[in-house]
Amino acid sequence: MSSTLVSVLPKDLVELVNASTQSAPIRYIRLPHPRTKVPCLFLPHETRTESTILELQSISPDASRSWFINNSHVVSDGRLLLHTPIDSAFLLAPLLSLASLPGGSKAQQFRTAEDMFEHVASRVSVGVDEIQEDSPEQPAYDILSLHKLRCVHDGMRRICEFKEVTEEITVYRFSEDKLLQYARAKVDHLASPAVFDGFRALRSTLARSCLLGLDESKADIVQLGRTKAALDLVSHYLAPETTEVLAMLYDFASLDVFIKNQGTDGDLGAMIKIGRTKSSIEDEFDASVDKEKNGKRKAKEQGGRNVAKLAKSSKKGMKELTSFFPKK
């Protein structure tokens, strides 16, 4: 069985892969997904100018597929692997929440990043299929390595209170409030029209909710639709309990009422488009049905004429069909 897999990588990472050798291979780390807590693979990538963590995602085909590479090599595994950057703040949140010292004062809970990850690694065992807390087995060494990444320290500053003790020493304390503030800022940024309209997947949610093509009097409803779609997207990288609290910061009551009313308008209620009315949609539907019927009628008439011509043609000199199948 072939071990080759096809993957999409950032350009600078492709150069790193080509330069890597067996003595220094690229190493993935296994961490809990921030929403599901299921162990997933991530790839730390750090250069002099950039520091990031890439999430490994596998896209499986709906049927058996293969890859043809350079017209000379066949890869039997038809999956496509994607490496996409993930916000380190969201990735760290469920881990740092375990770093709080039970029974300790808030002042005592300020610790260096290395100390925090050592504490988390001592409490968590990251297996292939599950995450175990307070496990007596060996610590999660992938967690211990996180404090070495610059993007991790940047992410900690977004969701932790911190103090710079010296130029080289900074201590942190995880803050649920800062996490919520940061997540809400993400939602509001994605919900802004200039950003929202750049994502086709987000715009499609407005279409399904009948929010496209509304007049300016419904601008507030449309904006609520953008916000809810952005919230749903951000929630993919938040723990369910965090998403629940974040959703309480918004009021979607008027949006829910509008969508509910749209659902009672009949079958055509979900077909609202810019610059089009129900009557124009009905006319277009009737025209398409008539066109289909006319096409079938013409095909039937054409077939009937051909059969009639064949029946009138001369059969002189032609053998009967049964003559080709003599009795045995």
Structure description:
It is a single chain. With 328 residues, this protein is of the alpha+beta class. The chain has 2 domains: 6-174, N-terminal domain of TfIIb (Single Sheet); 177-271, no CATH class. It has 12 helices and 12 strands. It has helices at residues 11-19, 88-96, 113-123, 141-144, 150-159, 176-191, 193-196, 200-208, 219-234, 240-247, 253-262, 278-312, and strands at residues 6-8, 29-32, 39-46, 51-59, 67-69, 73-75, 80-85, 111-112, 124-126, 131-133, 160-164, 170-174. The strands form 4 sheets. It has a 5-stranded mixed beta sheet. The protein has a 3-stranded antiparallel beta sheet with strand order 8-12-11. The chain has a two-stranded antiparallel sheet with strand order 5-6. Mean pLDDT is 77; it is low at 134-139 and 264-286.
List the helices and strands and how they pair.
Elements: E1 6-8, H1 11-19, E2 29-32, E3 39-46, E4 51-59, E5 67-69, E6 73-75, E7 80-85, H2 88-96, E8 111-112, H3 113-123, E9 124-126, E10 131-133, H4 141-144, H5 150-159, E11 160-164, E12 170-174, H6 176-191, H7 193-196, H8 200-208, H9 219-234, H10 240-247, H11 253-262, H12 278-312
Parallel strand pairs: 1-7
Antiparallel strand pairs: 2-3, 3-4, 4-7, 5-6, 8-12, 9-10, 11-12
Helix pairs in contact: 2-5, 6-9, 8-9
Please tag this protein with its features.
328 residues, alpha+beta, N-terminal domain of TfIIb, 2 domains, five-stranded mixed β-sheet, flat
Write a brief caption for the model:
The protein has 328 residues and is α+β, with helices and mostly antiparallel strands. The protein is built from twelve helices and twelve strands. The protein starts with 5 loop residues before the first strand and ends in a 16-residue tail after the last helix.
